[in-house]
Amino acid sequence: MAASVLFDAPGPKTKARHRVYTVISSIILLAILAGIIWQLERKGQFAYALWEPFVTPDIMQLILEALGKTLQSAVLAIIGALVFGVIFGAGKLSDHRLLRWPSWVVVEFFRAVPLLMLIVATWFYIGPEQGAKGFTALVVGLILYNGAVFAEIFRAGINAVPKGQSEAAYAIGMRKSMVMRIILIPQAVKIMLPALISQAIVALKDTSLGYAVLATGLTYTAKEIFRTFNNTIQTAFVIAVIYIVLNLILSMIATWAQKRFVGEQKIDLPLVGGLVQSQPMGTGTTGAP
Fold first, then answer.
1. Within 10 A of 72 (CB to CB), how many other CB atoms are there?
2. How far is residue 229's CA from residue 78's CA, in Å, rounded to a whole number?
3. Range with the poorest average pLDDT among 69-73, 171-175, 177-181, 247-251
4. Using only C-alpha atoms, what is the Rg of the chain?
5. pTM for this structure?
6. Beta partners for 276?
7. Are 136 and 126 in contact (CB under 8 A)?
8. FRET partner for 201 with CA separation of 20 to 30 A, picked from 153, 168, 180, 243?
Protein backbone atom coordinates (compact mmCIF):
# COMPACT_ATOMS: atom_id res chain seq x y z
CA MET A 1 0.00 0.00 0.00
CA ALA A 2 1.33 3.43 -0.95
CA ALA A 3 0.13 6.74 0.42
CA SER A 4 1.11 10.33 -0.24
CA VAL A 5 2.07 12.67 2.60
CA LEU A 6 2.07 15.77 0.37
CA PHE A 7 -1.69 16.33 0.37
CA ASP A 8 -4.87 14.82 1.78
CA ALA A 9 -7.17 12.82 -0.46
CA PRO A 10 -10.27 14.88 -1.37
CA GLY A 11 -13.40 14.02 0.57
CA PRO A 12 -16.99 13.79 -0.75
CA LYS A 13 -17.67 17.53 -0.39
CA THR A 14 -14.43 18.47 -2.15
CA LYS A 15 -15.15 16.04 -4.99
CA ALA A 16 -18.63 17.49 -5.39
CA ARG A 17 -17.21 21.02 -5.42
CA HIS A 18 -14.66 20.02 -8.07
CA ARG A 19 -17.46 18.60 -10.24
CA VAL A 20 -19.33 21.90 -9.97
CA TYR A 21 -16.17 23.83 -10.95
CA THR A 22 -15.69 21.50 -13.92
CA VAL A 23 -19.26 22.01 -15.14
CA ILE A 24 -19.07 25.79 -14.78
CA SER A 25 -15.69 25.97 -16.55
CA SER A 26 -16.96 23.76 -19.38
CA ILE A 27 -20.02 25.96 -19.86
CA ILE A 28 -17.87 29.11 -19.98
CA LEU A 29 -15.44 27.57 -22.50
CA LEU A 30 -18.31 26.33 -24.69
CA ALA A 31 -19.89 29.80 -24.57
CA ILE A 32 -16.60 31.40 -25.65
CA LEU A 33 -16.21 28.85 -28.46
CA ALA A 34 -19.79 29.44 -29.59
CA GLY A 35 -19.17 33.19 -29.62
CA ILE A 36 -16.06 32.77 -31.78
CA ILE A 37 -17.89 30.51 -34.23
CA TRP A 38 -20.82 32.95 -34.42
CA GLN A 39 -18.49 35.86 -35.17
CA LEU A 40 -16.70 33.89 -37.88
CA GLU A 41 -20.01 32.88 -39.43
CA ARG A 42 -21.29 36.46 -39.29
CA LYS A 43 -18.20 37.66 -41.17
CA GLY A 44 -18.44 34.93 -43.79
CA GLN A 45 -15.29 33.08 -42.77
CA PHE A 46 -16.91 29.68 -43.40
CA ALA A 47 -17.50 30.41 -47.08
CA TYR A 48 -16.46 27.47 -49.25
CA ALA A 49 -14.33 29.64 -51.51
CA LEU A 50 -11.99 30.43 -48.58
CA TRP A 51 -11.50 26.74 -47.71
CA GLU A 52 -11.44 25.34 -51.23
CA PRO A 53 -7.64 25.78 -51.74
CA PHE A 54 -6.96 23.16 -49.07
CA VAL A 55 -8.74 20.45 -51.05
CA THR A 56 -7.04 21.48 -54.30
CA PRO A 57 -4.39 18.90 -55.32
CA ASP A 58 -1.75 21.53 -56.17
CA ILE A 59 -2.11 23.30 -52.82
CA MET A 60 -2.17 19.99 -50.94
CA GLN A 61 1.03 18.98 -52.71
CA LEU A 62 2.59 22.33 -51.81
CA ILE A 63 1.68 21.87 -48.14
CA LEU A 64 3.06 18.31 -48.11
CA GLU A 65 6.36 19.52 -49.56
CA ALA A 66 6.48 22.28 -46.95
CA LEU A 67 5.74 19.72 -44.23
CA GLY A 68 8.65 17.62 -45.47
CA LYS A 69 10.98 20.65 -45.27
CA THR A 70 9.74 21.45 -41.77
CA LEU A 71 10.36 17.90 -40.58
CA GLN A 72 13.77 17.88 -42.26
CA SER A 73 14.83 21.08 -40.52
CA ALA A 74 13.52 19.78 -37.19
CA VAL A 75 15.38 16.45 -37.47
CA LEU A 76 18.65 18.13 -38.49
CA ALA A 77 18.30 20.70 -35.72
CA ILE A 78 17.55 18.11 -33.02
CA ILE A 79 20.46 15.87 -34.04
CA GLY A 80 22.84 18.83 -34.21
CA ALA A 81 21.57 20.19 -30.91
CA LEU A 82 22.11 16.84 -29.20
CA VAL A 83 25.72 16.73 -30.41
CA PHE A 84 26.21 20.36 -29.32
CA GLY A 85 24.62 19.64 -25.96
CA VAL A 86 26.74 16.57 -25.23
CA ILE A 87 29.99 18.37 -26.12
CA PHE A 88 29.35 21.55 -24.15
CA GLY A 89 27.50 19.79 -21.34
CA ALA A 90 30.56 17.60 -20.83
CA GLY A 91 32.71 20.72 -21.08
CA LYS A 92 30.79 22.35 -18.23
CA LEU A 93 31.46 19.26 -16.11
CA SER A 94 35.19 19.23 -16.88
CA ASP A 95 37.73 19.57 -14.10
CA HIS A 96 39.88 21.79 -16.33
CA ARG A 97 39.09 25.50 -16.29
CA LEU A 98 40.26 25.95 -19.88
CA LEU A 99 37.36 23.69 -20.93
CA ARG A 100 34.82 24.49 -18.23
CA TRP A 101 34.71 28.28 -18.45
CA PRO A 102 34.53 28.61 -22.28
CA SER A 103 31.80 25.95 -22.28
CA TRP A 104 29.91 27.88 -19.61
CA VAL A 105 30.17 31.12 -21.61
CA VAL A 106 28.97 29.48 -24.84
CA VAL A 107 26.02 27.74 -23.21
CA GLU A 108 24.84 30.74 -21.22
CA PHE A 109 25.22 33.06 -24.23
CA PHE A 110 23.13 30.97 -26.59
CA ARG A 111 20.55 30.25 -23.89
CA ALA A 112 20.12 33.98 -23.28
CA VAL A 113 19.93 35.27 -26.87
CA PRO A 114 16.38 35.08 -28.32
CA LEU A 115 16.06 32.35 -30.93
CA LEU A 116 14.67 34.66 -33.62
CA MET A 117 17.72 36.94 -33.25
CA LEU A 118 20.03 33.93 -33.67
CA ILE A 119 18.23 32.84 -36.83
CA VAL A 120 18.15 36.31 -38.38
CA ALA A 121 21.78 37.05 -37.45
CA THR A 122 22.92 33.76 -38.98
CA TRP A 123 20.91 34.51 -42.12
CA PHE A 124 22.54 37.90 -42.61
CA TYR A 125 25.96 36.43 -41.86
CA ILE A 126 25.74 33.70 -44.52
CA GLY A 127 23.82 35.86 -46.98
CA PRO A 128 20.18 37.01 -46.75
CA GLU A 129 18.79 34.97 -49.62
CA GLN A 130 15.64 32.92 -49.97
CA GLY A 131 15.78 29.13 -50.12
CA ALA A 132 18.83 27.12 -49.08
CA LYS A 133 20.49 29.92 -47.09
CA GLY A 134 17.29 30.65 -45.21
CA PHE A 135 16.93 26.93 -44.45
CA THR A 136 20.55 26.78 -43.24
CA ALA A 137 20.10 29.84 -41.03
CA LEU A 138 16.99 28.28 -39.47
CA VAL A 139 18.74 24.98 -38.72
CA VAL A 140 21.88 26.66 -37.35
CA GLY A 141 19.84 28.95 -35.10
CA LEU A 142 17.84 26.01 -33.77
CA ILE A 143 21.02 24.02 -33.14
CA LEU A 144 22.68 26.84 -31.20
CA TYR A 145 19.68 27.62 -29.01
CA ASN A 146 18.40 24.10 -28.38
CA GLY A 147 21.95 22.77 -28.09
CA ALA A 148 22.58 25.17 -25.22
CA VAL A 149 19.41 23.94 -23.51
CA PHE A 150 20.40 20.31 -24.13
CA ALA A 151 23.82 21.04 -22.61
CA GLU A 152 22.20 22.27 -19.41
CA ILE A 153 19.86 19.26 -19.35
CA PHE A 154 22.87 16.98 -19.80
CA ARG A 155 24.80 18.68 -17.00
CA ALA A 156 21.82 18.60 -14.65
CA GLY A 157 21.11 14.95 -15.46
CA ILE A 158 24.68 13.90 -14.69
CA ASN A 159 24.66 15.86 -11.43
CA ALA A 160 21.33 14.26 -10.46
CA VAL A 161 22.91 10.80 -10.26
CA PRO A 162 23.70 10.06 -6.60
CA LYS A 163 27.34 10.87 -5.79
CA GLY A 164 27.82 7.45 -4.24
CA GLN A 165 27.72 5.94 -7.72
CA SER A 166 30.77 7.85 -8.95
CA GLU A 167 32.56 7.61 -5.61
CA ALA A 168 32.25 3.81 -5.67
CA ALA A 169 33.60 3.74 -9.24
CA TYR A 170 36.58 5.92 -8.32
CA ALA A 171 37.22 3.70 -5.31
CA ILE A 172 37.82 0.68 -7.55
CA GLY A 173 40.25 2.63 -9.73
CA MET A 174 38.12 3.85 -12.66
CA ARG A 175 39.17 6.96 -14.56
CA LYS A 176 36.73 9.86 -14.93
CA SER A 177 36.08 9.08 -18.60
CA MET A 178 35.15 5.51 -17.69
CA VAL A 179 32.99 6.65 -14.80
CA MET A 180 31.16 9.05 -17.09
CA ARG A 181 30.70 6.52 -19.90
CA ILE A 182 29.91 3.38 -17.92
CA ILE A 183 28.37 4.60 -14.65
CA LEU A 184 26.90 8.11 -14.90
CA ILE A 185 25.56 8.51 -18.44
CA PRO A 186 23.46 5.29 -18.51
CA GLN A 187 21.75 6.33 -15.27
CA ALA A 188 21.46 10.00 -16.25
CA VAL A 189 19.74 9.15 -19.55
CA LYS A 190 16.69 7.91 -17.65
CA ILE A 191 16.55 11.16 -15.72
CA MET A 192 17.14 13.35 -18.78
CA LEU A 193 14.87 11.56 -21.26
CA PRO A 194 11.56 13.38 -20.51
CA ALA A 195 13.25 16.79 -20.64
CA LEU A 196 15.14 15.92 -23.84
CA ILE A 197 11.97 14.83 -25.62
CA SER A 198 10.08 17.89 -24.40
CA GLN A 199 12.82 20.15 -25.79
CA ALA A 200 12.71 18.24 -29.08
CA ILE A 201 9.00 19.10 -29.31
CA VAL A 202 9.88 22.75 -28.66
CA ALA A 203 12.45 22.59 -31.47
CA LEU A 204 9.81 21.26 -33.86
CA LYS A 205 7.46 24.13 -33.03
CA ASP A 206 10.27 26.66 -33.35
CA THR A 207 10.74 25.70 -37.01
CA SER A 208 7.78 28.03 -37.56
CA LEU A 209 10.23 30.94 -37.20
CA GLY A 210 11.64 30.02 -40.60
CA TYR A 211 9.20 32.42 -42.24
CA ALA A 212 11.34 35.31 -40.96
CA VAL A 213 14.30 34.21 -43.11
CA LEU A 214 12.26 32.96 -46.09
CA ALA A 215 13.09 29.33 -45.28
CA THR A 216 10.83 26.89 -47.08
CA GLY A 217 8.46 25.32 -44.56
CA LEU A 218 4.90 25.32 -43.32
CA THR A 219 4.76 28.93 -42.14
CA TYR A 220 6.47 30.36 -45.22
CA THR A 221 4.14 28.36 -47.49
CA ALA A 222 1.17 29.48 -45.40
CA LYS A 223 2.15 33.11 -46.00
CA GLU A 224 2.21 32.51 -49.75
CA ILE A 225 -1.21 30.80 -49.64
CA PHE A 226 -3.08 33.48 -47.72
CA ARG A 227 -1.48 36.21 -49.81
CA THR A 228 -2.81 34.49 -52.92
CA PHE A 229 -6.29 33.54 -51.71
CA ASN A 230 -6.82 36.20 -48.99
CA ASN A 231 -7.81 33.55 -46.42
CA THR A 232 -5.57 34.29 -43.45
CA ILE A 233 -7.77 32.70 -40.76
CA GLN A 234 -8.37 29.54 -42.76
CA THR A 235 -4.68 29.10 -43.59
CA ALA A 236 -3.64 29.71 -40.00
CA PHE A 237 -6.18 27.14 -38.82
CA VAL A 238 -4.96 24.45 -41.23
CA ILE A 239 -1.27 25.02 -40.41
CA ALA A 240 -2.05 25.06 -36.68
CA VAL A 241 -3.87 21.72 -36.99
CA ILE A 242 -0.82 20.23 -38.74
CA TYR A 243 1.49 21.42 -35.95
CA ILE A 244 -0.92 20.14 -33.31
CA VAL A 245 -1.01 16.69 -34.94
CA LEU A 246 2.80 16.60 -35.15
CA ASN A 247 3.12 17.58 -31.50
CA LEU A 248 0.56 14.97 -30.45
CA ILE A 249 2.52 12.30 -32.31
CA LEU A 250 5.75 13.41 -30.62
CA SER A 251 3.99 13.49 -27.25
CA MET A 252 2.80 9.91 -27.73
CA ILE A 253 6.34 8.89 -28.67
CA ALA A 254 7.60 10.67 -25.56
CA THR A 255 5.07 8.84 -23.36
CA TRP A 256 6.03 5.50 -24.90
CA ALA A 257 9.76 6.21 -24.54
CA GLN A 258 9.38 7.24 -20.92
CA LYS A 259 7.46 4.07 -20.05
CA ARG A 260 9.83 1.92 -22.11
CA PHE A 261 13.14 3.31 -20.88
CA VAL A 262 12.30 4.92 -17.52
CA GLY A 263 9.48 2.66 -16.36
CA GLU A 264 6.74 3.05 -13.80
CA GLN A 265 8.22 0.82 -11.10
CA LYS A 266 8.18 1.99 -7.53
CA ILE A 267 10.75 1.58 -4.76
CA ASP A 268 9.51 0.99 -1.24
CA LEU A 269 11.21 3.28 1.25
CA PRO A 270 11.27 2.96 5.05
CA LEU A 271 8.15 3.56 7.12
CA VAL A 272 7.56 7.22 8.00
CA GLY A 273 4.79 8.01 10.45
CA GLY A 274 3.29 4.56 9.97
CA LEU A 275 2.87 5.04 6.18
CA VAL A 276 4.82 3.24 3.49
CA GLN A 277 6.50 5.79 1.22
CA SER A 278 7.00 5.10 -2.48
CA GLN A 279 8.93 6.93 -5.17
CA PRO A 280 9.11 6.47 -8.95
CA MET A 281 12.26 5.06 -10.46
CA GLY A 282 14.73 7.52 -11.98
CA THR A 283 14.17 10.39 -9.56
CA GLY A 284 17.67 10.28 -8.18
CA THR A 285 16.95 8.40 -4.92
CA THR A 286 18.24 4.89 -4.48
CA GLY A 287 17.15 2.29 -1.97
CA ALA A 288 19.44 0.19 0.11
CA PRO A 289 20.32 -3.20 -1.40
1. 15
2. 34
3. 177-181
4. 25
5. 0.76
6. 271
7. yes
8. 180
